[in-house]
Amino acid sequence: MNNPLTETKAEILSEDVGDLTVHSIRESLHTTPAANLFECPNCKAEIEQGSDYCKFCGFNINENKLTKTKPSVKEAKEEFEKEFKQRYKNKIGITRKRFYLTLGSIMFLIAALSFLFYLSVTRLNEYFSSDEYKINNTVDNWRDAWEDKDIEKFQSYMTEDYEYFGKDGKKTDLKDRLKRIEGTFKNYKDIKISFSDFIMLSDSSTTGNDKKVRFNQNYESDKFQEKGIKTLRLYKGTDTNNEWKIYREFFD
């Protein structure tokens, strides 16, 4: 009777293996036939049919592009330098924009300040050359001479036809007015005079050479004190060397 196990072994050993060794036979069992291989489009190595990626270079067969999970040191360095240069370029661009914006703002501010300065100087020059300023300055100097008890300087701001009208309505000419003022200089130790609410008046009687001003006057001395509203008429012409001088004084 035949032994099934013995018969199977005999059949296997009876096959023709030629000159192949046992080792080569084993290798052949693990080798993919050439018909099942194809050439990688990227590295030209032979890889199995149906592969999604080349096992040698990582090429993506389906998307027809090289896929690398980890770049080389050289590539990483090049990528870093490229990104650094781009960021530096962007930063330089932002810095330049900020610089030009700041420079423009500074130039605009300088231009605005220059214009305001020019406008202020122009207006100040106009005011200093105006009749209002000159009249105001004349009245202030006249008051200072009064406080300083300087009768000659006090008189220099008044015309020869000067007239004074007091609260009682009586008229006093220049000679009598100066005599009375000089008497106060001798009798009063200290004289303090302040003017406030100074305004220029304009009516049918005023002209380019004839002006009217009004202000509050407060007169104080060691023996006498008086408050009231003072109105002055001033004139300038060739006979006054084009300087404003007082020719009428009213005290209410």
Describe the sheet with the most strands.
6 strands, mixed
Q: Total helix count?
A: 6
Give the tally of β-strands.
Answer: 10
Helix content: 40-55%
Numbering strands along the chain, what is their spatial order in the largest sheet? 6-5-10-9-8-7
Span between N and C termini?
166 Å
Mean pLDDT: 84
Q: What is the count of structural domains?
A: 3
Radius of gyration: 58 Å
What amount of the residues lies in strands? 15-25%
- Which blocks of ≥5 consecutive residues have pLDDT under 50? 5-15
N-to-C SSE string, H for helix and E for strand? HHEEEEHHHEEHEEEE
Shape, per Cα inertia axes: rod-shaped
Based on helices, strands and strand pairing, what is the structural class?
alpha+beta
Describe this structure in a few short sentences:
By secondary structure, the protein is an alpha+beta fold. The chain has helices spanning 4-13, 22-29, 73-128, 131-147, 151-156, 174-187, and strands at residues 37-39, 46-48, 59-60, 65-66, 158-165, 171-173, 191-201, 210-221, 225-235, 245-251.
Secondary-structure blueprint:
Layout: H1 4-13, H2 22-29, E1 37-39, E2 46-48, E3 59-60, E4 65-66, H3 73-128, H4 131-147, H5 151-156, E5 158-165, E6 171-173, H6 174-187, E7 191-201, E8 210-221, E9 225-235, E10 245-251
Describe it for me?
- The protein is built from six helices and ten strands, in the order ααββββαααββαββββ.
- With 252 residues, it is α+β, with helices and mostly antiparallel strands.
- A hairpin with a 5-residue loop joins strand 5 and strand 6.
- It has a six-stranded mixed β-sheet.
- The chain folds into three domains: 18-66, no CATH class; 70-129; 131-251, Nuclear Transport Factor 2, Chain: A (Roll), CATH 3.10.450.50.
- It has helices at residues 4-13, 22-29, 73-128, 131-147, 151-156, 174-187, and strands at residues 37-39, 46-48, 59-60, 65-66, 158-165, 171-173, 191-201, 210-221, 225-235, 245-251.
